[in-house]
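CORE FACILITY INTAKE
Project code: CF-77B
Contact: R.S. (postdoc)
Sample description: multi-component assembly, two entities in total
Requested service: structural model of the whole complex
Turnaround: standard
Below are the sequence entries exactly as provided by the requester. Do not edit them.
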Amino acid sequence: MEQFLDVSLFNSTLRMVTPILLAALGGAICSRVGLFNVGLEGLVLFGAFFAIVGNYITGNVWLAVAFAVLCVMLFSLIFAYLSIHLRANVIIVGISLNFLALGLTSFSLRAIFNVKGAYYDKNMQGLPAIDIPLIKDIPWLGDVLSGHSPLVYLAFLLIFVFQYFLFRTVSGFRLLAVGENPVAARSLGIKSKRIQYGAVLMCGVLCGLAGAQLSLGQVTMFTENMTAGRGFIALVATMLGQSNPLGVGASSLLFGFMDAVSIRLQGLSLPTHFTMMLPYVVTLVMMLFFKDKSYMQEARKANESSR
Amino acid sequence: MNSKLTQFAGALVQPIVAVLLALLIGALAIFLVGGSVMETYAEMWKGAFGSFYFVTNTLSRATPIILVGLGTALAFRAGFFNLGAEGQMILGGLCAAITALYVPGPGWYKLVLALISGIVAGGIWSAFAGWMDAKFRMNLLITTLLLNYIASLFAGYLVAYPLKDTTGSAAMAQTKMIDQSAWLPKLFQGMSLHAGFLIALAGAILLFLFMKYTVSGYETRMLGNNPLFAAYGGVQRGKLMFYSMLASGGFAGLAGAVEVLGTQYRYLDGSLSTPGYAWSGIMATLLAGSHPLGTAFAALLLAALQTGGMGVERNTEVPLEIASVIQATLILFVSAKLSYSFLKRRKARAQSGTIS
């Protein structure tokens, strides 16, 4: 047991959790303004791909991350335009965005790099690992917390930033108001469309970072369908965390931990199916306790907001 | 009659425009990678419908997509986003395989029983999500997504450990081969098309008649169009949700069973989820606006794009993924279409002078 729960397990948990956490925070922001973003998976996949493309073009890791963020923002703009402006069904737009990401990245992988399946270049630099000065000297904790890519630290910092922003600032309250009741928010003179656009773009930034961590953080490569359901896991983490940044952080950690445990069990050639299943079962049980709004309320709200 | 005809034509204009736009975007993508647009599309057509062999190939690929599409169409019509087709399909396929392998009896008996068990397994899995929503108000969209993972991991465990085929040399996570007597018969000698296609067509027609001509079909549509009005009209949402999800999952389970009994002849881990049948089926539903016959047609179109993409891959420099690009843009344009009709309605309302 001691061998099992060693430093590297927790260390890899933090690394695994980062893409999920970033995307889940983005999903939380979106759902707080009343747009349930099913397209997280696609946006993260775009992020992972464009981070590699950016790295290939510029040769600089930081420019690559910026490039990824910028490109994903463009794609989240499609989501925003269709769902806010044209009032298309958000879920359908999200699903089609996932398809678009899968198709377009695989296609461009062949078109730009002329490879099938995966692109890898050993000269390409990934995100550097940074040690935190003081913490790294603490015996056990230092090995767990230190030595990650900057995006890992950023992700955990953002939990608290968003918690503060949503529940302690005026703009945060306005954002919540738009999600609670768009009609009432508009009657107060809040520009609800602008806030919704802002939230979706923020979600794009976060998904871009998540993708960059995925393709430049742990390994420096892109493989087809690299996200492999992580975006949907992030979506579930958003739900489980009740779109509350601290809750999202906690539920993402649970998913990351289970991921790490499963990989460890694989090493011991034990069946991993049930450990991998556990987060989903836990989410189901948790949903039983945190009940959703009733469909009648939803329907009434939908009727009101279409006026 | 005339107005009905124009209405029908009007409903067709939007998807056709969307298809043309998507093909245009596809042409742009082909042009950007330096391929010849005309040649690529010619190869795509040949790959999908070029010869009798390719036509049957396309039809057999369309079979599970049609069935999944019908299931989601039914749920969407009732206003439920059933995104769990993949899990329902996997369990349907798995149960069909197990039944065909371990139930004693003559071949046809095993075959029928396997199909039924597939329907039941998919239906129960889906109705479970419907029941949780009706009873505990757990969001259906999320539960169906979650149940996908649970089903796929559970099936993966079963075929990797207790039911694993240990007779063959390949160390694959799969069940034993089903006895030939319990296979779905092929429609033509040496072609991949099997009797499942006829089942899918029959399903499409039955669902169409059900939605159009029965009371429950009307209630289902009413619930989807306006839940408040349906409640006012005395439709019991919980009950209807349970039954429509049961039927919806049943279609998806049947899709898995048909694929296992007609093409794979065993349950191989990942063989039902990797080709993306479930998601293609959902795409077909979205494309056709949940109309049963339209869904079957859209499923055929998507299958043709996929098999056509393989033809493009074989004979030109343009990658296979061009098909997915076209598919995705197609769906994006179609989702924009939904809002287009919304805008039109609002304009009409503004013109008639009522403020609402």
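Facility notes:
- The first helix of chain B runs from residue 2 to 32.
- The mean pLDDT of chain B is 86.
Invoice: internal transfer
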